[in-house]
Design brief:
Blueprint: H1 4-15, H2 26-45, H3 52-58, E1 62-69, E2 74-76, E3 81-92, E4 95-98, E5 100-101, H4 104-112, E6 124-131, E7 134-140, E8 146-153, E9 162-165, E10 171-173, E11 181-182, E12 186-188, E13 196-197, H5 213-228, H6 231-244
Parallel strand pairs: 5-6
Antiparallel strand pairs: 1-8, 2-7, 3-4, 3-8, 6-7, 9-10, 9-12, 11-13
Length: 247
C-alpha cells in the first residue's frame, strides 16, 4: 500500500517544476488520481502473467477459489470483480469438473445441438446480464448449484480527504477511516467550517507497492502535462513510463 498523501506530495514536487509556477490542488489531484490509477492497472493487466514482475504487481488483486452460488443456473459475481483468471469449476461428487466459458452465441448453439449440449460432465458458462454494477454468470445445466472461480478484483479508487486552515491555507491530510474534528478556523473539504466532526474520512490509499510508484508518477505527469499544455512534462512522463515499464 502507498499512502495517498505521499503520492500527492511527490506529484506536487513534479508539477512545481513547471516554470510558470502552476501547482495542483487536492481536488484536482483526486480527479487525476482516478485516471492515473486506472492506467497503471490497465498497463499490468494487458501484460498479465507475461513476467514475474507483472505477476507480483497483480498478486494483491487475485482472488482464488471464490464460490458463486447459483439459482436456476444464475449467479452473481462480487462487486469488485474485474476479470476471470483460470477456469471456473465445480465439484461433482468426488470429481472436479471444469466449466467451459463460452460466448453468448455459442451458449445458445450448444443447447440446440445434441452432440454439444452441456452436461454435468461438460458444463458451460456465459458472462452476461448485469445486476446493478455486478456481472452475472449463466451456467448450464441448471442442476449445477455452485461454481468456484479465480478472478482479478478491481483496484480501489484513490482519494485524499483533507481540511484547510482559513488563515494560513495549510492543508491537513485526514487518515483513512479516521473521524477527526475539523478545528475552528478551518474548512473541511466539502465546505463545512470548523468546529466540524468528520463522520468518517473518505481517504482511500493506493493499492500499489513502492516499486510501482515511479510508473504511477509517470502517468500523473503525462496527464497533468496535457492539462497544462506543457510539452516538457508530457515528454518527461513518456520517458519515465518507458523506463519503468515492465519488459
Amino acid at each position: 500500500m502507498v499512502y495517498c498523501y505521499e503520492i500527492y506530495e511527490m506529484v506536487l514536487d513534479l508539477v512545481r517544476k513547471d516554470k510558470r509556477g502552476r501547482s495542483l490542488d487536492i481536488d484536482e489531484f483526486n480527479r487525476v488520481a482516478k485516471i492515473a490509477n486506472a492506467r497503471l492497472y490497465a498497463h499490468y493487466y494487458n501484460q498479465f502473467e507475461t513476467s514475474n514482475d507483472v505477476s507480483n504487481a497483480l498478486a494483491k488483486f487475485k482472488v482464488t477459489n471464490y464460490e458463486v452460488s447459483l439459482t436456476a443456473g444464475v449467479g452473481t459475481l462480487p462487486a469488485n470483480y474485474y476479470d476471470l483468471i483460470g477456469a471456473p469449476r465445480y465439484t461433482d461428487g468426488s470429481d472436479t469438473r471444469e466449466v467451459d466459458v463460452v460466448t453468448n452465441i455459442e451458449y445458445t448453439k450448444r443447447q440446440s445441438d445434441y452432440l454439444t449440449r452441456p452436461t454435468t460432465t461438460h458444463p458451460i458458462m456465459m458472462l452476461a446480464g448485469v445486476s446493478g454494477t455486478q456481472t452475472q454468470v449463466y451456467v448450464l445445466p441448471v442442476t449445477v448449484s455452485s461454481i468456484r472461480v479465480d478472478y482479478l478484483k478491481e483496484a480501489s479508487t484513490p482519494f485524499l480527504d483533507y481540511y484547510v486552515n482559513d488563515t494560513t491555507l495549510e492543508y491537513t491530510y485526514i487518515d483513512a477511516g479516521s473521524t477527526p474534528t475539523v478545528p475552528t478556523g478551518s474548512t473541511y473539504r466539502d465546505g463545512s467550517v470548523g468546529s466540524y466532526a468528520v463522520p468518517t474520512a473518505l481517504t482511500v490509499n493506493f493499492d500499489w507497492d513502492s516499486g510501482d510508484v515511479p510508473l504511477l508518477l509517470s502517468y500523473f505527469v503525462q496527464i497533468l502535462g496535457l492539462q497544462l499544455g506543457d510539452e516538457m512534462l508530457i515528454q518527461v512522463g513518456n520517458a519515465e513510463e518507458l523506463k519503468n515499464s515492465v519488459q
